[in-house]
Inverse folding.
């Protein structure tokens, strides 16, 4: 029965797009894992039609990105690892990772929740330098703040708001380090600023009980000459309903970790791209932009830029109206990082 329903869904989807589009994008249905397949046919058909309506103009690449097999113990993956489901209403250990690092200029599209059900709220999203292949499920916490105990580079924010189940979020990693957010094709501004000198995996925490589902729709790679791919999020920003509240360990300078979080204020419009100077050949992490002697080993909170050694970062933070040398945002804290 499930195979029959799946074939019917593919036929239904084929009728919603011209033949030239079928080779570019195919959105799989999340078939229920029990005997209610036939009863849920209409819901699955509606789900596919909603996704096609939101993203039908994009030629998304779906073959090269799935969820990593390493995941939290309270989340399950579909057979093709494109859909993550977390049925527990209290969340639990529901971290999932991208199977490979994100590429500069790449946009990742996900569908949050189930169409027709209540919205799961903001989606916890982050970037990390930690290869999930080296993690074990017991190491993945339910509380994302526990990531502060790890030594790798972790950046976390809350993406949204997700107003209804089935909303589509996009995350664009720009070459300069900005991560841009979009909701249903509408630009929401800069979500994070990350260090792109290392491989970076995306991760999510699936939430919402019965609505707790996250579907990978595909990726879109911009051309080298373009900093923002078509259909992703640039230009004018509307930040009236942004949801970016998260917490940070303000004493992280004494911790072997680096967790940078987004500010609780509304998103600001993206500034003109600023590219850091090339790193010297004899320095792994680049030289401090203040003393030109020490190695860069510090993240600035809240902007996330890495351009200072820890000593210069501490001295700069003590100054009145201290601001980042790159973007001139106020410095609230400096966080020392430890690389393997």
């Amino acid at each position: 029965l499930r195979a029959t329903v799946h074939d019917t869904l593919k036929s239904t989807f084929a009728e919603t797009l011209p033949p030239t589009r079928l080779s570019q994008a195919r959105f799989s249905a999340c078939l229920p894992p029990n005997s209610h397949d036939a009863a849920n046919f209409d819901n699955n058909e509606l789900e596919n039609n909603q996704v096609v309506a939101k993203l039908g103009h994009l030629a998304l690449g779906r073959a090269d990105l799935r969820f990593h097999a390493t995941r939290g113990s309270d989340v399950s993956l579909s057979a093709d690892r494109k859909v993550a489901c977390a049925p527990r209403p209290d969340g639990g250990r529901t971290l999932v990772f991208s199977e490979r690092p994100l590429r500069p200029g790449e946009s990742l599209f996900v569908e949050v929740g189930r169409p027709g059900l209540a919205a799961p709220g903001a989606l916890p999203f982050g970037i990390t330098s930690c290869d999930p292949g080296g993690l074990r499920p017991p190491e993945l916490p339910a509380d994302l703040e526990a990531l502060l105990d790890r030594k790798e580079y972790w950046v976390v924010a809350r993406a949204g708001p997700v107003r209804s189940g089935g909303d589509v979020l996009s995350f664009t990693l720009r070459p300069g380090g900005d991560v841009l957010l979009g909701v249903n094709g509408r630009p929401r501004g800069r979500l994070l600023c990350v260090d792109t000198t290392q491989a970076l995996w995306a991760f999510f925490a699936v939430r919402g009980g019965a609505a707790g589902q996250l579907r990978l729709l595909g990726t879109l790679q911009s051309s080298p000459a373009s900093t923002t791919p078509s259909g992703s999020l640039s230009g004018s920003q509307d930040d009236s309903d942004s949801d970016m509240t998260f917490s940070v360990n303000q004493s992280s300078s004494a911790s072997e970790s680096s967790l940078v979080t987004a500010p609780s204020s509304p998103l600001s419009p993206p500034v003109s791209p600023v590219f850091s100077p090339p790193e010297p050949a004899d320095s792994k992490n680049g030289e401090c932009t203040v003393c030109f002697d020490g190695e860069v080993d510090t993240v600035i909170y809240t902007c996330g830029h890495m351009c200072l050694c820890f000593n210069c970062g501490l001295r700069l933070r003590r100054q009145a109206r201290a601001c980042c040398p790159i973007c001139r945002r106020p410095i609230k804290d400096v966080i020392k990082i430890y690389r393997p």
